[in-house]
Fold:
Amino acid sequence: MRHLYLNGAWVPSTSGEGIDIVDPATEEIVDRVPAGTPTDVEAAVAAAQAAFAAWAATPPADRAEILAAAARLLRDRAERVARVIATDLGAPYAKALKIHTLGPADVLDFYARTAQAHDGEAGRVGNSRVLKEPVGVVGTITPWNYPLHQVVCKVAPALAAGCTVVLKPSEVAPLAAYELADVFDAVGLPPGVFNLVSGRGEVVGEAIATHPGVDMVSFTGSTRAGRRVGALAAETVKRVALELGGKSANIVLPDADLKAAVKAGVANAFVNSGQSCSAWSRMIVHRDQYDEAVRLAVATAAEYPLGGPFDEGARLGPLVSKEQRDRVVRYINRGHEEGARLVCGGTERPFPKGFFVEPTIFAGVAPGMVIEQEEIFGPVLCIVPYLREEEAVAIANGTPYGLAGAVWSASEERAVAVARRLRTGQVAINGGRFNPLAPFGGYKQSGLGRELGDYGFQEFLELKSLQF
Ligand code: NAD
Structure:
């Protein structure tokens, strides 16, 4: 059994109970982490509180140096960390390395530079000098789908701002968070500045959200759990940041390059086996091009062979857990019942072992169907027809979510005009690639606040006005 990382040391949990970590490709238990307790959270928060004043007062250049050293060490250990992520998440090793490990190293570097440049001054307003100060102790609660990226998106800006942190990673894929704790330990982050308490959401997560010593809770996960965290945090008037679910729409306008739009749309829907909050899980296509789009999508799906993370040629891994596969299978069955037309994939198990789901596409999906409204979080793409642009926009905006999306058109101006009407935090125009410096976050029930880049940094700062 692993330990918790509290006040600069690896210590056993007070619970003695563990959570098995399962390799989703083999279904074998590969590790065991502590099921932490509220008492463990108490100790972590006490350590973070005790460390706060000194860390907040540490010169920005010194904070920057520690973050930059962490980025360097993470890169040095990248192959090992990627193997860990490939094993507990199931992501193909090449993706585990490039997206899941080296991506977060870049984010750490960005926030090292941000820390360096941050002087805590926000300028003058009349007779006031405005300061930007760290918000305090930050509780961070993260999901399994990008198990290092989601952690680093919160922890790096929080530390750069001068906050101290208590992290609860997902109990499903927590091993990358352990690697990060080890990196921070090795580069000499002072004790108490970063603390890790593994465990279940209802126990450790809720203890963090309710703890009066936690000044801010930054949560990424489902809308269901985010709502609960927000309600609990309200009792002690914490600052709350929520990065929640999505059901993003990929609108293909009639003048778009259909082939490019469909190919990129399928790739986006299936990346990380569809377990991405910002996945374009609905493709909205004009009726005149609908049949051709479905044909192209099915042909593209065939280019995504399934396999274990270390299998040569596999582009999609398993889903993270049996629960996740069962959930996705239930949605596929639901799509059938609702009368949508399965054009590829389905619920057949492709291999005797592993939580795999074939890349699946539904055509004939109507707005309002459950598979069109709810986040499935698996490799399932719904293709929805429209007649007029108005209708495409209404379909795109017609869910409780608003995280991401895409618009394709031969006219960039027309695409931007449609993008401006989407109630969503990000829109890719003609396949514009993900920008890790741009603000990321949701409208509506996809969340509160923004992560990444300078906007993500500002979330961890309080404003103070000094009047003269
Ligand atoms: P989840 O909500 O089940 O769990 C997320 C985290 O919250 C885990 O650490 C879990 O232990 C904890 N948790 C669960 N219940 C809790 C409670 N009552 N109180 C406190 N903490 C609790 O989500 P998941 O299955 O791990 O991840 C998938 C979800 O995350 C999807 O809905 C996805 O869209 C969302 N997500 C959003 C973003 C984003 O940036 N918007 C990014 C990645 C994932």
About this structure: The CA atoms of residues 365 and 384 lie 5 Å apart. The chain has two domains: 4-244+445-467, 249-435. The domain at 249-435 is CATH 3.40.309.10 (Aldehyde Dehydrogenase; Chain A, domain 2). The first strand starts at residue 4 and ends at 6.
